[in-house]
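> forwarded from #structure-qc
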């Protein structure tokens, strides 16, 4: 479990395809001094297990399934990545609860600069739009952000990025058209599972499954 607060910018120093997928070596200064074998680390929002480390960085094995559903497959030697170690139970929850389980890949549509702040508009897979609400939380490339606005018909959303986040994450080096890892708020998915019969989920924002909850249902349960 993570918070979506990036602790360090790392750099890809090794990249080797193998039968299990791809081995990644990440160069970093701070995180490498805190890790152990089997520790979890978020790389651009993707939870990975550390298989080797030294003073200058660490290594992970990215499996085929992860390469298929995230942007890790597009990393190159020298690519910068957002890094965060797993949350300790004693830590402050400064962002929101982030699993490091990417739900889909979106695309940056445009940036707008307002003083030192940046407003980012991006696309979201249609099946994820039902989990996104204004003022709600969303994770982009491992960064916890607040949704500023949404467009359900276009399957787009907007977030505002403060100067500190801009300067200390890979957003500063991204451009229009770049793909981004998206993780929606896990609490929204649990609520959906509870609301709909048999765990059925809406496959389209146009025709959602009808909820079992109604005024009569609530009355039967003693809510009023």
């Amino acid at each position: 479990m993570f918070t979506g607060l990036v602790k360090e910018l790392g750099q890809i120093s090794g990249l080797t395809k193998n039968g299990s997928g791809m081995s990644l070596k990440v160069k970093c200064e701070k995180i490498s001094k805190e890790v152990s074998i089997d520790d979890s680390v978020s790389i651009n929002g993707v939870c990975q297990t550390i298989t080797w480390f030294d003073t200058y960085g660490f290594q992970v094995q990215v499996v085929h399934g992860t390469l298929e559903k995230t942007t890790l497959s597009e990393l190159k030697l020298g690519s910068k990545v957002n890094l965060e170690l797993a949350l300790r139970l004693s830590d402050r929850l400064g962002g929101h609860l982030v699993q490091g389980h990417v739900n889909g890949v979106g695309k940056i549509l445009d940036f707008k600069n307002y003083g030192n702040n940046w407003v980012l508009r991006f696309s979201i897979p249609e099946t994820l739009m039902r989990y996104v609400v204004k003022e709600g939380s969303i994770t982009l490339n491992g960064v916890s952000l607040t949704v500023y606005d949404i467009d359900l018909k276009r399957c787009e959303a907007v977030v505002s990025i403060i100067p500190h986040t801009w300067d200390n994450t890979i957003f500063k080096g991204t451009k229009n058209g770049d793909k981004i890892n998206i993780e929606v708020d896990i609490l929204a998915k649990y609520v959906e599972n509870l609301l709909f019969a048999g765990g059925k989920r809406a496959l389209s924002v146009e025709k959602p499954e009808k909820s079992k909850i109604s005024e009569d249902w609530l009355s039967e349960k003693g809510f009023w």
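QC bot note: The helical segments are 64-69, 163-167, 186-195, 215-220. The chain has a mean pLDDT of 90.
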